[in-house]
Amino acid sequence: MLAVLVASQLVSGAGLTAGIVVGALLAEQMLGSTGLAGIPTALFTGGSMLGALVVGRLCQRRGRRPGLGAGYAIGALGSVGVVVAVALDQVALLLPSLLVYGAGTATNLLARYAGADLAAPHRRARALSRVLLAATLGAVAGPNLVPLTGDLARAWGIPPLAGPFLLAALGYAAAAVLLTTLLRPDPLHLAQARIPASETPETARGADADAAADAHGGSDSGGEADPVRRGANRQRGPGVATGLWIMLLGQLPKVALMTMTPVHLAANGHSTGTIGLVVSLHIAAMFLPSPLTGLLTDRLGALPVAAASGVLLCAAALLAAAAPGDSVPVLAVALTLAGIAWNLGLVSGTAVITAALPPGRGANTQGLADVGLAVAGSTGGLLSGLAVTAGGYDTLALACALTALLVTPLALRAARTGA
């Protein structure tokens, strides 16, 4: 099962980067405004939000195989829609297609939970990190194939910027086929089968709902709760909320910085090939450290790793703010550090959430957590273009640094209080 998950991540990783590399450039070209360049990121991360919600619920009801397979198939459909929209120069088709394309991104990230379904508690972070690592090859190759896919698109009479979305359609479709046909038995079903007989489906669903409510700051609205359930919530709820905030406060500034750096480089005269190389380094840094991050999280604990992620992401954003606009190496280092920091935050935050949920019964809450992740990404993408228009790239980077630094006191407080 892990081999099938890894194979699907290898091919779907190519689709993950299409919007990152050319989304902002495409919007700037078709909408005619730098201030609107963050709209594609906002749209496909918004689509990721909806995709995470739908795929999470489908996984819980039907299993990982149909849930993840459907998510990738929807992402492939959205990629095709983007290509058609660019070919016809139809903004009205481009915008909803970017939204649908985001389902592939959501599915790519949700697959990490499938890697942890059958892992022992002390090895969960390493298990989910292996699935994240598998996305590296396709994700790193994708940006470097921008010139090649652009030439292919041009040969077909399509604008070159649509090329990466051709690759995304192929990658997501291949992942959907792999998972639908080969992920047998379903890992979530096996995880559910391991639940003690004393834990009924009704109890598990109730615990899952309580965890989801606590993750969003809610409470049990059904009157007086069982004292045992309330005690479980006090232990589990803050863990879900803490893990969610760790991921959100890393996602928003990272996406904002990642969205506008290609536009910043293009404005300083750099080619799409150079931009693709910088983004490749960033994407590699997002996934390659996963095994080490998983090991550190299992050995040291999730909260110390999360605290380190905030410091590192802040440093990366400050370096980007200080970098000259024509200095590709400095910006490449800044984005690489940002990718590593994001990886630390994602793996540690996911480990906190996974540990706080009932085994095999948390897919709904996992999906809701990734909805929050997508909302943060969408907000970062949307605000990034406005921030650059209002104050320049340096202002955006400084704002990202301040936001990222909030992760560290949050994690340290949680480690001290256990809440």
Structure described in brief:
With 419 residues, the protein is an all-alpha fold. The chain contains 19 helices and no strands.
The total of beta strands comes to: 0
**Could you describe the largest sheet, including whether it forms a barrel?**
none
* Average pLDDT number: 82
Structural class: mainly alpha
Tell me the number of helical segments per DSSP (H or I, 4 or more residues long): 19
- Which regions have little confidence, pLDDT < 50, spanning 5+ residues? 197-238
Account of the protein in words:
Helices cover 83% and strands 0% of the residues. It is built from 19 helices and no strands. It has 419 residues and is mostly helical. About 10% of the residues have low confidence. 62% of the residues are buried.
List descriptors.
single chain, 419 residues, mainly alpha, 19 helices
Note the topology.
Layout: H1 2-16, H2 18-31, H3 39-62, H4 64-88, H5 91-116, H6 124-134, H7 136-144, H8 146-155, H9 163-182, H10 187-193, H11 201-215, H12 227-267, H13 272-287, H14 290-300, H15 302-322, H16 328-356, H17 363-391, H18 393-404, H19 407-417
